[in-house]
């Protein structure tokens, strides 16, 4: 099939996720292959993968060890169901995940995407209290601007107006508390932390008898715009959850597997979630595996005779898929073999230096970074922090400019995401930042010119 045929057919038959298809029609892109941190389209153009193919890719594309692990597994079997029957790679991966996860985690429940992992966490937390006879503990607390996926349950514990508002009457009510970000200039990080925890304490004091759990992204909100929590906040939430018997559900879908410079972001504050969700980087960005990890007391609340009616009636056709688990095992072995976590710590420092040049740009209001997870917020004027009119889509246009310059990424509103594969070298990170600077300057200047 020629490139023109592929383009025509993609426009005729495909419906892409999170995409206004009229945008795609104007600027289509079809990826043919990938190698290392590069992607190649059907026209032969190569691009740096500046968003790790949507925050997934870890060791680069076509990583030999993962390719081989999948091929080896394929000689045995691609898939058999996990409903009522285990399989070998799913057992081995569960053991590995428990070994890597915070100490209190002992159980692994598989699914296929980050949203499913969180949906499962919410259902588990709900049924946990029902099974234990606390029938009033039914509601969930969540942070403003939080994102946990696009299923009805995860949208209910999510709070991004642009994505969720239209579905309001379809969703269950969650208690939304403000994400702890500072609005007053003179407020220090520790003041902000203390005051935000005080508010949470008041809520828990008033409503703990009806609250089943709280869902939080670990340390940094991803899709909400790369917002960093003040230091100590997540630890404080953990302590309040313990005190008021509320389950702490930490979403590590975006932050897990080295992204923030630790295997899991909760390690930065030594937090032990009751339930923790992982996906994305778990297979190195190869195959759709996700997992909901739990402490033993969660598992025990579901354990008994069938007739006790405590079973967790949840599962998906591809849950625990062997090819995916084999890829995940190979991915995690490379973490050890290549000392990836230490590498990320070092690369994050290098990237921080590079991003200082981005922060100086007239059109950059803020640069937020945790490890190799970064957001660059664009504004019309640095001095006033005034945003561009949203209809101008300055960040989206910047990413199109970056594409023309040889890098792919996606915006989140006026925030540009930089989430390189963890394997990116310092040279490649520098190239990405240079392209970003140029793309931002071109698009922002164009937007301003159009205003006059
Ligand atoms: N949770 C967080 C924190 C995420 O960032 C995402 C996706 O970006 C999800 C959940 C949903 O994951 P998935 O797209 O695999 O459903």
UniProtKB/TrEMBL annotation:
**Annotated InterPro entries:** Aminotrans_3, Aminotrans_3_PPA_site, BioA, PyrdxlP-dep_Trfase, PyrdxlP-dep_Trfase_major, PyrdxlP-dep_Trfase_small
Protein residues bound to substrate: 147, 280, 315, 410
What interactions and quaternary structure are annotated? Homodimer.
Q: Which Gene Ontology biological process is one annotated for this entry?
A: biotin biosynthetic process
Role according to the record: Catalyzes the transfer of the alpha-amino group from S-adenosyl-L-methionine (SAM) to 7-keto-8-aminopelargonic acid (KAPA) to form 7,8-diaminopelargonic acid (DAPA). It is the only aminotransferase known to utilize SAM as an amino donor.
Similarity remark: Belongs to the class-III pyridoxal-phosphate-dependent aminotransferase family. BioA subfamily.
Report the GO terms under cellular component: cytoplasm
Catalytic activity field: (8S)-8-amino-7-oxononanoate + S-adenosyl-L-methionine = S-adenosyl-4-methylsulfanyl-2-oxobutanoate + (7R,8S)-7,8-diammoniononanoate
Residue ranges of the TM segments: none
What are the subcellular locations of this protein?
Cytoplasm
Q: Which PANTHER family match?
A: ADENOSYLMETHIONINE-8-AMINO-7-OXONONANOATE AMINOTRANSFERASE
Coiled coil stretches, renumbered: 334-361
| Residues recorded with modification N6-(pyridoxal phosphate)lysine | 280
Residue(s) at site: Participates in the substrate recognition with KAPA and in a stacking interaction with the adenine ring of SAM: 18
One GO MF annotation is:
pyridoxal phosphate binding
Keyword Cytoplasm among UniProt keywords: yes
Species source reads Halalkalibacterium halodurans (Bacillus halodurans)
User: What is the name of this protein?
Assistant: Adenosylmethionine-8-amino-7-oxononanoate aminotransferase
**Cofactor(s) required for function per UniProt:** pyridoxal 5'-phosphate
EC code: 2.6.1.62
